[in-house]
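W.,

You were right to be curious about this one. When I first looked at the sequence I had no strong expectations either way, so I just let the prediction run and decided to look at it fresh. Below is the sequence, 81 residues in total, followed by the output.
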Amino acid sequence: MKKKPDSKKILFGSKNYKVLLIAITFISLGFFLMSGGGSQDPNVFNNEIFNFRRIRLAPTLVIIGFGIAIYSIYTNPLSKK
């Protein structure tokens, strides 16, 4: 005799998905801020690539986004406070 399969358990709750969406937004914004800064002429160097936005702000946003994503994955949706 076959056993009936158990009801499907939801791995993540709605809070986890919302936090994960926030993390994806942070990561996307960081990569967007990192883009650009190239020169139209390959013989001319553009110092714009070394500004605060590309060197400090964008990588920080990406790292924060990955941290938020890890938090959303490890948070237990079934635990109640």
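Here's what jumped out at me. The mean pLDDT is 87. And, maybe more interesting for your project: The radius of gyration is 21 Å.

Coffee later to discuss?

I.
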